[in-house]
Design a protein that fits this description.
Elements: H1 8-20, H2 31-44, E1 51-52, H3 54-57, H4 74-81, E2 89-90, E3 95-98, E4 109-112, E5 116-120, H5 151-164, E6 173-174, H6 177-184, H7 188-201, E7 204-207, E8 211-214, H8 216-225, H9 239-242, H10 268-284, H11 287-290, H12 299-313, E9 322-325, H13 328-339, E10 345-350, H14 354-362, E11 366-373, E12 376-377, H15 379-385, E13 391-394, H16 408-421, E14 424-428, E15 453-458, H17 459-462, E16 470-473, H18 479-490, H19 495-506, H20 509-536, E17 540-543, E18 550-555, H21 561-570, E19 576-577, E20 590-594, H22 600-616
Parallel strand pairs: 1-2, 10-11, 10-13, 13-14, 14-15
Antiparallel strand pairs: 3-4, 4-5, 6-8, 7-8, 9-16, 11-12, 15-16, 17-18, 18-20, 19-20
Helix pairs in contact: 2-4, 5-7, 6-7, 10-19, 12-19, 13-14, 13-18, 20-22
The chain binds pyridoxal-5'-phosphate.
């Protein structure tokens, strides 16, 4: 593949597919007819991975003429189901999206054949919906043989009650009459007669060649009759349950809403590699992998992470010190359990990462908010405020949320203090992969020669949050407890995902992905910063970060970040007021804006609207 002319494979596969589609009839001038044939071809041939993803790409494309648009209807959904990773996407014969084969950034671009690249392809552009078969096969169908009700009637009533209780949903396939008869040990004629009755009453519908399915209409009526769940009285909730904060639904990254933070981009190249490696990993899993495995994670993955951390982050480690977790969140949870007892004091950054703070409160630990200045955590303030702290939680490479990098003097001061006082440091090194300028920063852990740092990293930022794989590098004295805690909480990480990630790293795809994303995210950062600065000069001071996936735009003129956050939300723009992340320190009002993973076409207009909104905002 690497020797082929760039783009040749993609073009060949486009050509091949085109040849499979019957020629347009002379009397059929409309491009819609081409679409139709393409859909039909796709439905016939499940092996094809090219996709007519008109709906998914619509927001990036020039608006087609009305008559050319074709909604994703039931008739073409079968085709979209067949798409796993998209190689070439057509929405119009003139447009295509070319993936891995091109071997460059352009390889993940939506192309207009006449005018060249239109847009990057993100993970949004890989829709996958599958038709559910439902759970009727596992439903506990039962007959009461002592009852005087005829068996056929009992079968009928069983299906009715499964529908009305909501146990079986619309579209669920009902077992064939033969299967049902054999499962219940009744004559097939009894089942056939029950099914006929159900059909006549509209409980089920029959699709020729496919089987019998629960009908949507009746289920809809049944659901409408159901009463809403009763509100739970507060007194009925145990006190400990009340300690948990409500989950903020806005944190769900379903759609590309600028400037939600922590969004990552999986381009077509990575998606395709992932698909290939997943297939390979599934085939390669042996009996040992399929059973319970080491709670600390797969040896190969730990080895690869160890090599990566030594080279890229100057972390001092051996593979056996790496514990695979579900991400930073779980690593910090384990660190708290291993290091701290209720009532212990700890230092957290002010402003700081709210989830760490919330986890500490849940563990009944006493977090002291220590201010952050241009050099990072103010160690002197910590020493003064909480001299007996047992642990310090820091983000030294890219302080969350300010983006400040901790100076060398502060790092050495912090390590010395921890050593002298027998405290541990939990270093959260999130987004260290995305450094755009300035000298590379080594980890704090790499400076520690007294084994007082638990280093925590995550692949959920480097790759994608849905992955749920992170790691901790644990000092040897804490290793047995750390692995033991991981085992009790969650037994072990998922084997298949680990195997895929390990190969992804081993074969160099991780490095290549980081390189491509670093380039893209930097462009996205610049597009955001430039548009904001141009549009709201004088009212905004944009801090351009050297690293990470978000920036902070500080507000001037006594503007309230909370008020702007609310106004932006009304305008469909997501910003977070930085003052929400402060505890004791006096906040400098500003907005946290995620830039990573949003195409320029989304960033520029949204940032311009935000700039106008800020310019026109009248004070608090
Ligand atoms: C400071 C900080 N650490 C870590 C993470 C990543 O956490 P996880 O690996 O659990 O997804 C985030 C995500 O937003 C973060 O802001």
């Amino acid at each position: 593949m690497s020797h082929a002319r760039p783009g040749a494979t993609a073009e060949a596969s486009v050509g091949w597919r085109r040849r499979q589609i019957s020629e347009r009839e002379p009397r059929e001038p409309s491009p819609g007819a081409d679409h139709q044939r393409f859909f039909e071809f796709g439905q016939r041939d499940g092996r094809v991975r090219g996709a007519v993803a008109e709906r998914a790409l619509l927001h990036l494309e020039p608006r087609p003429k009305r008559r050319e648009r074709r909604p994703c209807s039931a008739s073409n959904s079968g085709y979209l189901q067949a798409c796993r990773a998209v190689r070439v996407i057509f929405s119009d014969p003139c447009w295509s999206a070319v993936s891995a084969e091109r071997g460059s950034l352009e390889s993940s671009a939506l192309l207009d054949q006449r005018h060249g690249p239109l847009s990057d392809i993100g993970s949004d552009h890989f829709p996958m919906t599958t038709k559910s078969q439902g759970w009727a096969d596992l439903y506990a169908w039962q007959l009461d043989r002592s009852s005087r009700t005829p068996l056929s009637r009992q079968v009928y009533m069983q299906v009715c009650s499964a529908v009305l209780s909501g146990a079986l949903r619309a579209g669920a396939r009902v077992p064939s009459s033969r299967t049902m008869a054999s499962r219940l040990g009744v004559a097939r004629a009894s089942v056939v007669s029950a099914y006929e009755q159900l059909l006549a009453e509209g409980y089920v519908e029959s699709r020729r060649g496919s089987g019998t399915f629960i009908s949507g209409e009746v289920v809809g009526l049944a659901m409408a009759r159901r009463t809403a769940p009763r509100a739970i009285k507060r007194a009925a909730v145990p006190t400990s349950a009340r300690d948990f904060p409500d989950f903020e639904r806005s944190a769900v990254q379903g759609e590309a809403r600028p400037f939600n933070t922590g969004r990552t981009l999986v381009d077509a190249r990575t998606a395709e590699t992932w698909r290939r490696l997943t297939h390979r990993a599934v085939r390669g899993l042996g009996p040992n992998d399929l059973g319970y495995t080491d709670p600390a994670g797969l040896a190969e993955l730990r080895g690869n992470i160890c090599d990566y951390l030594r080279a890229a982050r100057a972390v001092r480690c051996e593979p056996d010190q790496i514990v695979i977790t579900a991400g930073t969140q779980q690593a910090i949870d384990i660190a708290i359990r291993v290091l701290l007892a209720p009532g212990d004091e700890v230092w957290v950054e002010d402003p700081g990462y709210p989830l760490t703070h919330a986890q500490l409160l849940l563990a009944k630990v006493r977090p002291h908010a220590i201010p952050v200045d241009v050099q990072g955590l103010v160690v002197g303030a910590g020493r003064h405020t909480s001299p007996r702290a047992r642990a310090i939680f820091v983000t030294p490479s890219h302080q969350f949320p300010t983006g400040v990098a901790m100076s060398m003097a502060r790092r050495l001061e912090l390590l010395a203090w921890a050593r002298q006082n027998g405290a541990f440091i939990v270093e959260d090194d999130y987004t260290s992969e995305f450094r755009y300028s300035g000298p590379p920063l080594a980890s704090l852990q790499g400076l520690d020669d007294s084994e007082r740092v638990i280093y925590v990293g995550t692949l959920n930022k480097a790759l994608f949050p849905g992955l749920r794989i992170g790691y901790a590098v644990v000092p040897r004295s804490l290793l047995p407890a750390f692995v033991g805690a991981r085992y009790l909480i969650d037994r072990q990480p998922a084997t298949l995902q680990q195997a895929v990630v390990s190969e992804f790293m081993q074969q160099g795809h991780f490095t290549a992905h980081i390189r491509r994303m670093r380039q893209l995210y930097r462009e996205q950062r610049d597009a955001l910063a430039e548009t904001l600065t141009r549009g709201a000069a004088g009212r905004l001071d944009v801090a351009l970060p050297d690293q990470g996936m978000h920036l902070v735009a500080y507000l001037g003129d006594g503007l309230s970040d909370i008020a702007i956050e609310a106004a932006a939300q009304r305008a469909g723009i997501v910003v977070r007021a930085i003052s929400r992340f402060y505890h004791a320190a006096r906040p400098r009002p500003g907005l946290i804006l995620g830039f990573s993973g949003f195409p320029r076409q989304l960033i520029v207009p949204a940032a311009a609207r935000l700039a106008t909104l800020i310019t026109n905002h009248s004070g608090n």
